[in-house]
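Justification of resources, computational component.

The compute hours requested in this renewal are based largely on the per-chain cost of generating structure records like the one below. Each record pairs the submitted sequence with a full structure-token output. That output is archived, and it is also reused by downstream analysis tasks.
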Amino acid sequence: MPDGLAALAELGVHLPGDKVAPFHGIRFLDDAHSVAARFAQGHGLGVRRTVLHQSLVDAATQAGVELHWGTRVLGLTRGGVLLPNREIRCRWVVGADGLNSRVRSWAGFDENPTHALRFGHRGHYRVPPWSDLVEVHWTRNGQLYITPVSEREICVALVTRDRNLRMKEAIAACSSLPVELREVLPSTREQGAITANRRLHSVVRGNCVLLGEASGCVDAVTGQGLSLAFRQALALEKALLAGDLGVYERDHRRLMRLPARMAGLMLLMDRRHNLRKRALHAFSSQPELFGRLLAIHTGPASPLDFGLRGATSLGWHMLTA
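The structure output for this chain reads:
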């Protein structure tokens, strides 16, 4: 997303221009409605995870980070981190090890239960992108996301509550997708993962701090997972330079607030199909409202900018749908 790209640039990470595909907004669709909005500023980039990974590695190496690939971490000590044959002593320990974080468990963070557990799948297809927008196709079984990742390839992601649903069946059942996509074989193996909503009481404990999905997460429906992690990294940089992890705790809580609310709203649309149809009808009738919500979601605008007038207009169009 645009805010994530801005954070990456500030962190000194640059993505290769020949291995990415820009997108300029978001389109929501179902079998009866379509509404789109362009970003108020900037653009997003579709990129293969392997390309992003290499860009992060290159930036870390150039910054002087020593990477220990394949090294098992056995736990935390009072002075640092325990490896199989030695202890690495350090002032700070950052756990950025994902949804099932071991660092979070070792450090004794109080965990809230994971809410709204859903299942994600993704595959790539050798199909030229038909739009410069990311498309989110809403169905009764979940959402299908279409993201351009090059001039000749798209990424298709499925997020669903049905643990047994797979990409092929979801694409075949989605009437809002181009017919051609149903006839193309994937160019990569289908991969799966878990997506969830989780909030922690705290992301700082002693000299240990959590970042990314280890520190709490929002459902993939928001498209904000990576952008949140990059923005959290900037907040952590500020706190480490100040020598005060309390600064990070406060900034982290602020950064999570809006994505968590957006996730709650969109998951409500996922659970209640009549509400989703009314919302998409309202947005397609008043596309400027959709644009204002997108501007709030990606950073240029504040929730206050939506205002009472926007909320009243949206509510009225939903009631009369």
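Residues 272-321 form one domain. The chain has a mean pLDDT of 90.
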